[in-house]
């Protein structure tokens, strides 16, 4: 528990799916008393945003209702992370609703446009990069503009940006070239922004989970197992064998790291890309 999160205003992007990392992060921040804006795309949009990869508005409303049982200050907003004007409207919504913005968690991401590099289309590459990296940049830009207009809070700072990277922010893997490029890029963005915004007492960090058992994670298991000629059980057993702590990650593992980085306890930590991987990734 981090008492200094009480009353902080936080946006969590891509938080409209049950069992997703965004839901767990939002719940954890709400448990500590943060006021929330949950964001998601809200509807499917052709092959680049299919049902298995997108939080629909009804699902986000259910997630919000669940979290309101913990803390009533939960609002929702739909925006396409690929469109700067929509991302700007998301930030404006938080400020309209709660008159300030303290925390941005960049969690929205496309982790399903996988396949051989030689078959990847420009549309696939652009979608992955434009959601995972460009959209996170848009959100950071407009959130930080707002944070800079607010005073520094004693023993906490002026603002927090936490972006959800991946083990794919540190290491490569087959069939995921655009995803891995986007998540490596997110770490570069994090480090540069941390240097630029440190003097303003805004910390900028990334959290890098390995495989997590979300809905997206389940889809990835099936895709990767099939690509390797394995059953899902065989694929997961091999994965567990590579992880020193012997299990895949849970949404709460990532949410715990996010809450810590958003708290005053982490006020001297910036520019980090923190692995949450049971020891699978160590650099
Ligand atoms: N599940 C894993 O194994 C895992 C591991 C490492 C990193 N991650 C990262 O964690 C984050 C959350 O993943 P998750 O597993 O909870 O998946 P998820 O699919 O539940 O969450 C991703 C969200 O991003 C949203 N999104 C996609 N395109 C969008 C767009 N154009 N505009 C706005 N929102 C959009 C989706 O609607 C979805 O709700 C992602 O950034 C993912 O890359 C996941």
Please characterize this protein's 3D structure.
There is one protein chain. The protein is α/β, with parallel strands linked by helices and about 280 residues long. The chain has a single domain, classed as Rossmann fold. The protein has helices at about 20-30, 55-70, 85-100, 120-150, 175-195, 215-225, 230-240, 250-260; strands at about 10, 35-40, 75-80, 105, 160-165, 200-210, 275. Helix 2 links the parallel strand 2 (about 35-40) and strand 3. It is globular. It starts with 8 loop residues before the first strand and ends in a 7-residue tail after the last strand. The mean pLDDT is about 95. The protein binds nicotinamide-adenine-dinucleotide (NAD). Nicotinamide-adenine-dinucleotide binds next to helix 1 and helix 6.
Which helices and strands, and how do they pair?
Blueprint: E1 9-12, H1 21-31, E2 35-40, H2 57-68, E3 74-78, H3 84-98, E4 103-106, H4 122-148, E5 159-164, H5 177-197, E6 202-209, H6 215-227, H7 232-242, H8 251-262, E7 273-276
Parallel strand pairs: 1-2, 1-4, 2-3, 4-5, 5-6, 6-7
Helix pairs in contact: 1-8, 3-4, 4-5, 6-7
Bound molecules: nicotinamide-adenine-dinucleotide (NAD).
Q: Tell me what the CATH architecture is.
A: 3-Layer(aba) Sandwich
Structural class estimated from helices and strands: alpha/beta
Report how far apart the termini are: 28 Å
Shape annotation: globular
């Amino acid at each position: 528990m981090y008492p200094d999160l009480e009353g902080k205003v936080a946006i969590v992007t891509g938080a409209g799916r049950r069992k997703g990392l965004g839901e767990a992060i939002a719940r954890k921040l709400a448990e500590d008393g943060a006021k929330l804006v949950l964001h998601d795309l809200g509807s499917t949009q052709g092959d680049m945003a299919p049902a298995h990869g997108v939080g629909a508005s009804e699902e986000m409303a259910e997630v919000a209702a669940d979290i309101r049982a913990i803390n009533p200050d939960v609002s929702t907003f739909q925006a396409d992370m690929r469109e700067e004007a929509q991302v700007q409207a998301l930030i404006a919504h938080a400020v309209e609703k709660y008159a300030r913005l303290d925390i941005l968690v960049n969690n929205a991401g496309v982790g399903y446009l996988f396949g051989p590099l030689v078959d990847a289309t420009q549309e696939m590459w652009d979608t992955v990069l434009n959601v995972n990296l460009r959209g996170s940049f848009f959100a950071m830009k407009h959130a930080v503009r707002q944070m800079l207009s607010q005073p520094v809070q004693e023993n906490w700072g002026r603002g927090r940006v936490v972006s959800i990277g991946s083990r794919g922010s540190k290491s490569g893997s087959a069939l995921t070239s655009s995803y891995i490029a986007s998540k490596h890029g997110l770490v570069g963005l994090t480090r540069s922004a941390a240097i630029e915004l440190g003097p303003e007492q805004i910390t900028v960090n990334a959290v890098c989970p390995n495989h997590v058992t979300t809905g997206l994670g389940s889809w990835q298991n099936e895709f990767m197992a099939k690509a390797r000629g394995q059953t899902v059980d065989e694929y997961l057993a091999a994965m567990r064998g590579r992880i020193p702590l012997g299990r895949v990650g849970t949404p709460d593992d990532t949410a715990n790291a996010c809450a810590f980085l958003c708290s005053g306890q982490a006020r001297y930590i910036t520019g980090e890309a923190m692995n949450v991987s049971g020891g699978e990734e160590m650099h």
